[in-house]
Specification:
This protein is an alpha+beta fold. The chain starts with a helix and ends in a 26-residue tail after the last helix. Residues 782-828 form the Integrin beta subunit cytoplasmic domain. One of its GO terms (biological process) is integrin-mediated signaling pathway.
Amino acid sequence: TYVNIWRRFILYIDKLCEDTAITSCDQCIRKHPQCAWCSRTSDNSNIKRCRSYTKTLQASACATADITMPRSDVIFQKNLPFSSRDDINVVQLRPQNININLRKGDTVKFNVTFRKVKDYPVDLYYVMDLSNSMKDDLAELQKLGARLAEEIRQNVTSDINMGFGTFVDKVMMPFTSTVPDQLKNPCVKADEFCSAPFGFRHQQPISGDLTAFKESVQNTNISGNIDSPEGGFDALMQIAVCGNKIGWRESASHLVVFTTDASFHTALDGKLAAILDANDMQCHLTKVNSSVDSNVYVYDKSKELDYPSIGQLRAAFVANKIQPIFAVTKEVRSLYDGLKSLIPNSFVDELANDSNNIISIIKTAYNKLKEKLQMSLDDDNKPTGVGISYRTLCPTAGGWAENSLSCDQIKIGSEVTYEFTISASSCPATLPSQPMTFTSSSLQEFVKFNFNFLCDCNCSSMAEVDSPSCSTNGSLVCGACLCNDGHEGSRCQCTQSTIGLSLNAQCKRSDTADICERNGRCVCGVCDCDENYHGKYCQCTNTGCPVTDGNVCGKLCGCVGGKCENCYNQPKCNCTSKNGIPYTLDNVGSCTCHESECIDQRSNNTMVCSGNGNCSCSSCICDPKYDGIYCQHCNSPSCKTITAECSSHEACAICVNAAVQNRENANDLCQVQCKDVTFQTVKAIPDCSVCTANSGVTCPSDCADVDPSVLTPTPCSQAQSTGQCKVSYNIVWKKSLRNYLVLIKEFDQAIDCPKPINPLVIVLPIVAGIVILGLIALVAWKVYQTWRDKREWKVFENEMKKSKWTKGQNPIFEEASTRFENPTFHGT
């Protein structure tokens, strides 16, 4: 029941606060938020100074004025009311400054409220791309002129100031042509006149002078460059960090309208022009030396510093609470849409080709941005050991949103409530130099969280040196004696030399490190027991005696030295335990414990100490391998139905390994295989064998609760059911669970699986063998052919030598004859 749970909690607190290791007020209030210290000076050395607050109040030895118990609280140091419409100073967040006083282990809760104020001031800076492709957009803006500001004032907010600036790109190759003629007029090839190229030009500071804004726009001429991306990020960085020169008001929302039809250059693009220095996120605006342009500033580090990165822009916008509105053409809309998720409180909309919808874009963006609120906490200044959780109640939500600081659809006059729960798990050695801040990039206001830790008692700084209450051998601090070296005791009344041995060592049993069993204090080598405890080491309790009349013993009995005595010669003194189980009064007048105290009444086991130990002073002394109040728990593998052999846990390890490998829930998938054990996946199998008290080696974090003295860690390795990959696991004994813990290595293909056979290892030898066999065959064939030809040649030569030839005339041969006749000859 709830009452029993509460009683157990109170007993738990009492045990914590009354720890005999606590000897000072500072230690007491750091132990638990419910611990209180009694600073009363008393001759009674047995007084318990650190107790739960309830017990301290009940203790007659301590008055309320002597109790030290600092309480955690929250103080609203500054809590100005919300401003109204006509107030000059706008207040939308309250409280504004909070002091948080925390005790270790304690928790506080408080709320911060935001109320949307009507007609909140707005500073709007209009920065425009002046590359030649924006010619018609500039013409439209010049046509609008002052009407732009008037329409924004009428349709958006009446309290608006405006500024104007322009940008092109870095005047360096390959971004801008450096041909002398084109440096003077980048539009010379198109037979048009343009202004000389530049990086960023701040032409009109933010102000309520609409005429100056109109003139600044009218005096602007188009320019040009070479590549498509523009240097707009340089302009945005200077607009963000040059607050004084730009003219941002501290009490207004900061909006930047960024218009372009091209993509942007970002960090590292400057390397194309041999610019190696990263953007330093500092202001580098220099006034132009011209009487005409007396209010015009230019970015003088354009050729020296790289473009800023998106991350740098984000940081600058958040730090200076700037909300950008990217009004871009359809061709580059998708590119700028990606910036919305990277830059908080940003807005992207599509700009018409001639910018005729710019007023509509600004109105839509302002309405959406003003209805959205994204708050944030400065975690960099959070003290060590502090935990912070929060939730938000938005005006249109049906309930609290846990771990969220965002709200949408915030209308004028509506409120947002933020609930913070802050706790301290430790006392930090040092505090951050600055308080934590709770704010938004869309607000100029913020809430300060100032932390103060209640870890030291005020009386600790008021020590009485060489106090008579401390036998002049120590200082009286918060009612307790802090002894000088060589002196001990509750009143520093004994010295080390009078005993010859360590005083504390005489108050401990040989088998424990606890002084007086944590039931008393060691006074000059003798245990001074707490109430209801007795024995040399305060190891016995006599709380079994009835408390019918407020005394330890009943009406017919007296209590002397923790023993119930028969005061009126009665045959016996009835002693009952606090649980109603009768005790027995022995022949020396002590209430001896009944064995029923050592039987778990909630269990079916009726054996004393569950049959696994002996009953002594109402407590069980367990046999080896057993622990628990009634020795009901076995802390040994011998009590388990399965052994520590690898084969007993093989199925579980393979199942978990496969589940993790397939990104499935191993707890659900492997219930059957792992029903008798607990498993844990690890990156690498740790060496838990070093986790012994005397090893002197730091125990791996995965082995923090492992006891190698109960079970020597068993390393195992098993092939998976499919494939040749192996599963590595280690079987250890987990102390808190009193059961096996299987540490299963997460699947790593590079380590757990054999490397696949390189096909070249197979193919190349086969091909090489074929080639070599072919070469051998060719060589053999060539040798054979050569031998065969040589043999036939010898046969031919022999035949030639044997042949005999004779000379003769061909019988049918006739020699050729030719006859010539002389035509002039006339023979006779």
